[in-house]
Amino acid sequence: MTLPAWLHADFTLTDDAGTATAADLVEAGIRLADELPLWGRAGMAATGARAILSALLATEARQTDLFLIRDATTGAEIGYRIEGEAVVEVAPDAPDGTGLVWLQTSGSTGRPKWVSHPPEALRGRIAAGQSHARWLLSYAAGGFAGLQVILSAAIGGHHLLIPPDHAGIGDLAALAVTHRITHLSGTPTFWRAFLMALGAETPPLATVTLGGEAADQALLDLLRAKFPEARLRHLYATTELGTVFSVADGRAGFPAAWLENDLAMTAQGTLAVRRDGRLQDTGDRIALVDDRVLFRGRLDAMVNIGGVKIWPEEVEAHLLQLSFLRDALVTTKPNPITGSILLADLVLADPETQALCEPLVKAHLALLPRAARPAMIRYRTALPTGQTGKKSRMP
Amino acid sequence: MIERVVAELQRILADKGETHGPITAGSLLLDGELPIDSLDLATLVVALEEQTGREPFKAGFRMFTTVGELATLFDEAA
Asked: From CA A394, how far away is CA A384, in angstroms rounded?
């Protein structure tokens, strides 16, 4: 059996089902490729890193597109488009048979946006790295960051440990210690929790990677102190642009000298990235502080909660579907654990009914992804309004 | 402050319908002893900030692992 050129023969993956070698995964990919025409959205029970890797190999061999569907509970599902027939419910408008990998961006109310990447572009920035590295997957397998970790281990010929579904941060910390994990990548929110969950024993981390949210100096300093031997780096990547840059000097933000060529500050003070010869505005606000460019949140109302992109207005609109609410205001507040958190101020049509309405509000919010549910709900008689008469979005 | 942290934690756990053992100053927050995650912890901090008007994390994340350590951070932020 021949392995694709990018897949290292030494790669192994361990999950609930046991350990698989690179050859096992290719074999599973070939089986999948044979079954492909039979697959439909309803039958896609396969989830997780192992299935995604096999599907990647299968679709590459067949030159069909692979769709990784984000799912709040399972992390990801796999979908295919075969001979022009869309087998996913929300199929993007794409030419057939181009072998692209389609990913969904995260969102507050499950309104997903599809973004495609040629597989070679997903692998583009990954170097072979050192041998005998052991990775632990902390991200959902089907997202951009998860895929980067899976591919990094596969290309490098490393070992990849997949935690069981619903593993908590305490479980992940214990797995990292027992399996002597050397490579770990996570959001700043993940790392804060990971540091708090670690006991006296620490894993022998050689590489500590942060991504998905802006990394603050306090956290970088704590990580440097806890893992003095590790290579500490934070990435700037988006599902749309892929990995843009990596900062390895242990300082928050990035060097001001980088604001030329491929990076620029727009007139509105946001970061723009050059792609295919033109600058694309990321909407991330930046500020120049001495020789450093620091991230200052978003120009639009989007807020990053533990690596998940949330639009407070969408949460507000979701709440206002409840007919007993006269008004709702969802604001954001900085939070040391998850970067930000949502607060909701609600005005009931009839304040007398609060006891009755509270559980209904809670049940209605439970329909949203965890990160989109306000951490605190305050019942008010009226909402604060700004000078323009608009609801004031400042907390 | 400890009592306040414990009471708020109990409220969050009750909200989730979780059962748990006694919570003390020495209880570890995120090592699996208590059935909470980062978002629950964020909720706890927001509730404590709201109740006390204190913001111990204004300058950035600070390390804490137990209920007692979190209470101390709030005490010191007075």
From this structure: 10
**For chain B, what is the radius of gyration of the CA atoms?**
12
| Cβ pairs A/B, distance under 8 A | 86
CB A169 within 8 Å of CB A194: yes
How far apart, in whole angstroms, are the C-alpha atoms of residue A62 and residue A36? Answer: 9
A375 in B contact zone (CB under 8 Å): yes
Q: Which residues of A touch B12 (CB under 8 A)?
A: none
**Residue pair A215/A234 in contact by the 8 Å Cβ criterion:** yes
Is residue A264 within 8 angstroms of chain B, CB to CB?
no
Predicted confidence (pLDDT) per residue in A360-378, tens digit: 999 999 988 888 999 999 9
Question: Which among A180, A247, A176 is positioned nearest to A211, based on CA atoms?
Answer: A247
Going by C-beta distance under 8 Å and a sequence separation of 6 or more, which residues neighbour residue A335?
Answer: A341, A375, B42, B45, B46, B57
* A266 — pLDDT class (breaks 50, 70, 90): very high
Residue with tokens 């899976």: A150
Task: Dump pLDDT digits (tens) for B25-62.
Answer: 999 999 878 889 999 999 999 999 999 999 999 888 89
Distance CA A315, CA A351 (A): 22
Say yes or no: A174 contacts chain B, CB-CB below 8 A. Answer: yes
Q: What is the DSSP letter of A102?
A: E
Please, which pLDDT band fits residue A112 given cuts at 50, 70 and 90? low
The answer to whether A168 contacts B57, with C-beta atoms less than 8 Å apart, is no
pLDDT higher than 80, residue A392: no
Nearest to A222 among B15, B33, B63 (CB): B63
